[in-house]
Amino acid sequence: QKSPPPLHAHKGTENFAPGPRQRLAIASALLHDPKVFVIDEPMVGLDPIHARTVKQEIKARSRAGMTVLMSTHLLNIAEELADRIAILHEGRIIALGTMAELRSLHEDKGQRLEEIFLGMVTPEA
Q1: Is residue 78 within 8 Å of 95, Cβ to Cβ?
Q2: Is 34 strand, coil or helix?
Q3: C-alpha distances in Å from residue 68, one per residue of 1, 13, 17, 40, 116
């Protein structure tokens, strides 16, 4: 006797909540083990457990030689994951480098990426 199809086997992904839809999209993109992985806002819709899993997977794939190009507004995620960071403002790259290189542009060498970014794009008050 055949077992019934999985509960969601015949449903479209557009009916999934944002978190499961994001996890499925990431898993689908990584399934064929691409050499280059381009992802926009990877943590959108993910709870802390799944966000950690995605971060670990991105780090592991990068260490194994995959090129990962990620765009995000979550600067703590970029700081945590990126080997090199491009800061964009009004559609232009205004800084590019490692965290150490970006920090060297400022007097306070211990700054976080958020402070570096805001210092570059916020007009002096």
Answers
A1: no
A2: coil
A3: 45, 25, 25, 11, 22
**Between 80 and 2, where is the model more confident?**
80
Q: How far is CA 2 from CA 7, 59, 80, 122, in A?
A: 15, 41, 47, 63
Looking at residue 30, its amino acid is L
Tell me 3's DSSP state.
P
The 10s digit of each residue's pLDDT in 81-97 is: 999 999 999 999 999 99
Q: How far apart are CA 72 and CA 28, in angstroms?
A: 20
Q: Is the predicted pLDDT of residue 54 greater than 60, yes or no?
A: yes
Give me the residue label for tokens 């950690």.
52
Quick check: 125 pLDDT over 60? no
CA–CA distance, 125 with 116 (Å, rounded to integer): 16
Least confident of 30-34, 51-55, 103-107: 103-107
